[in-house]
Amino acid sequence: MDLLLALLDDFRPTAINDIDNGVIAYFVTAGVRDDALAQLGAYELVDVTAEDVPDENWAERSQAALTPVTVGRLTIAPPWTVNDALRASVPGPIIVILPSMGFGTGHHASTRLCLELLQRVPLQNKRVLDIGTGSGVLAIAARVLGAASVVGIDFDPDAITNARENLELNAISEGVRFAESDIQAHAGGSTVAYDLILANLTGSLLQREADAIAKLAAPGAHLIVS
Q: What are the angstrom distances between the C-alpha of 54 and each of 30, 64, 76, 187?
């Protein structure tokens, strides 16, 4: 399974769901999916099939029963759970995240770990970059915790749409910008050196893009990767 996941990761799936005796991998385009299919077929590791699925909010449907998650002094909550009782019961700010096409509802261990570490670094007057922003949860959290400016990038246009929706849900009108871009493009076109870089991605992608990520960091910057 580890080898299978490593091979799939080379094709940048938008999601991977566990099923009995295997996985379902989702891709942005049929072309990328078919390339992954051919690669896996060449190795003869597993039986693979391809299927077209509607471009719909599969994540929203699968996450409809999500409940609030509290990490440190932050609580991540779907909008339908936010009420006076929740506000009275949590230790600090509530970040509203609508489950949709972007990864990051606070329930995955990697997101929670990033949120925990984010609360340990100085953020006042800092410039933050969130690579692979997904739902925008880490970018929004950085701004809520006091960052001066935050940029969130993602190569998936659906994720950027979701991130901007979540920005509006949290009534944040300035200090956060989301852009459709990948790491290489942003590193090549950015004139900003960031004080904190967040990258909640896959291990192999972090290894491939390590040099580009490093180029975006200001001297003495903090780096939180997962």
A: 12, 18, 28, 33
Sort residue 184 into left (φ over 0), alpha (ψ -120 to 50) or beta: alpha
Q: Tens of pLDDT along 68-86?
A: 999 999 999 999 999 999 9
Task: Give me the count of residues in the chain.
Answer: 226
- Please say whether the beta carbons of 66 and 107 come within 8 A: yes
H helical segments located in the chain: 2-9, 30-43, 58-62, 84-89, 109-118, 137-144, 157-169, 183-189, 203-208, 210-215
Does position 116 have pLDDT exceeding 90, yes or no?
yes
What band does 94 get if pLDDT is binned at 50, 70 and 90?
very high
In 10 A of CB 119, how many CB atoms? 15
Structure tokens at 65: 């029963």
pTM to 2 decimal places: 0.76
